[in-house]
Amino acid sequence: MEEDWELTDGEPSSEGEEHDGRLYEHFRLVADAGQVAVRIDKFLTERMAHSSRNRIQKAAEAGFIHVNGKPVKSNYKVRPGEVVTLMLDRPRHDDTIEPEEIPLEVVYEDDQLMVINKAAGMVVHPGCGNYHGTLVNAVAWHLRDLPTYNPNDPEVGLVHRIDKDTSGLLVVAKTPEAKSNLGAQFFNKTTHRSYNALAWGNFVEDEGTIMGNIGRDAKDRLRMDVYPEDSGIGKHAVTHYRVIERYGYTTLVECILETGRTHQIRAHMKHIGHPLFGDERYGGCEILRGERTASYKAYIRNCFALCPRQALHARTLGFRHPLTGEQMDFTSDMPEDMTRLIEKWQTRLKQQ
Known about the structure:
The protein is an alpha+beta fold. It has helices spanning 40-45, 53-61, 135-142, 176-187, 264-271, 294-306, 336-351, and strands at residues 24-30, 38-39, 65-67, 70-71, 77-78, 83-88, 106-109, 113-118, 157-158, 167-173, 192-200, 207-211, 213-216, 224-227, 238-246, 250-257, 312-320, 327-331.
């Protein structure tokens, strides 16, 4: 029942991709009666030919390694008769990526990489019920005549990810050397990524830094939560923000990522009391600030209709070219839905 598997949380993810919150069994083993107590990471490394110990440890940190139905850490010691399972956040599925003719906005392209401006609503990578119509399928079509590019080869392709309903810039590596080099830049925090976001509330400070580990919400696997840095829960995460424009009940901010965790900006902003406008998963689809009048409620409903998603856009992306070392900087204009939303708040502010 053993299979090759990939833990997506082990990759740089920017804002990360959404999952359906459920876990699916991919591997099961019952420890025999003569099993001596041994760390589960060592136990599984010896039995899963395609997985390294480090990879298994990351799976345990993410809550994917279970013993008798409960998640355990990598130092857990397996005992006779215990049932060990690998539970991943996607069902067992044929993950073969097929090219699909889907329009792409390619901002830049050469023989090493391509930079894409992703539209809101497009899933980045197949999985969790979205096995077709993804950015990866579109890239496979775009590069279908490039004999050296195999969309099913993990050594090429996406270097980082953003959520389905987040718009903006992504970089794709065409060669293993480019992906290795760009991956190292993301890991070493030498890239530059900034987002524009409309958040609920009027920020007290013009700029600030949010620090707090990002980990799965204990009560809702569809969400991430923020934990103290010394808690041992989740992964270290840092978001810097700067106020661009204030509208009284909402604020347009620039968010600069120092790390790239799943839902990082969305979770960090909720943590400081400023959920992103329209972010249903993190409470941003409720009227969190403002007036009790019927006209104001109607105004907010119209705003939600203009931009029916979290108001978050990956606006800038900067890195060094993996071959030449040249600094590459890209900027993406605000998409139409967010532009109209912000103009509506600007108009309201002028009328007051």
